């Protein structure tokens, strides 16, 4: 959906200023590698159709052009800009993205969700956000340049009711210290009040730490996080940080996308995963940049699961049992014709006789396959795979995402 127009006012100046402020934080982190100071972790929030994805892409490109290696964290499971819809992902960028090609990266860290809205399985969504955050923390510990460059985080458009609570969970899990609120005054006000309380907690924790040091006869030692603190508290900047909110205007070029258009966008994103971008000549499409392969797989060589089961009423559960636990449990899926046209995630979970299926949710995704057909007579399933050869894993995860090629 493209609209060509000329405007006398643009929010790009505020976006550039935001980048400059983030760059200052990256410089401070780069100059203090010894103490594991981390770069900015910037989350972009707002309602639907305010340009969150485009702002994310803009800030990523600005950072890359300054020689940084930022991580794009895509928590918008409805769009799936890094991989496919129905997932949350994080990808490292070392070169600018092209607007017409979207957000692409060859080696993302990705987790299966299977739905296009977080409210469908809120407990499952929170669980994989925490798993993704843990994986990114481990990556930052291994690479100083990645840690100092920080995150740019794109979020879903659910900003009412439990959606706001979910945003706060994301901020806590990913240790976000900058929140950009696009065109939403009420959300800005609510998050500002919450952030003020969180910052007060962090300040109190610092005070308690100083008191403890004094009690340990370290009164003359430099405070943690200062220039001379050395190796005494390496994770200081992960424990104690302030959350800053910035309110930004949306671009006048942002348009409202109806649901049929969103559906078409998701289908195009899935097609792009398998076929790449179209190759044109004389304004005609003559091919594509990728060539997927068809695999015929016997039933007994793969195991298909879905994550989450319908919620169980509290009165049906044993005493002390968590009613939300079943939302992250894996349930076997029978191989039938109903699987046709499903998009399956290839899990990195190992397949063995003694595998704990409840642990499958903890594993990241290696890629995706599309179910072309299911042959019940031959007990085989035909899959469309982005690469030749066998599947990289035997555990396949089914969600609600379907696609008609």
TrEMBL record:
Residues 290-405 form the Clp1 C-terminal domain. Transmembrane segments: none annotated. The keyword Calcium does not apply. GO terms for molecular function: ATP binding; polynucleotide 5'-hydroxyl-kinase activity. InterPro entries: Clp1/Grc3, Clp1_C, Clp1_C_sf, CLP1_P, P-loop_NTPase. Signal peptide: none annotated. Residues 213-232 are annotated as: Disordered. This is Protein CLP1 homolog. It comes from Sphaeroforma arctica JP610.
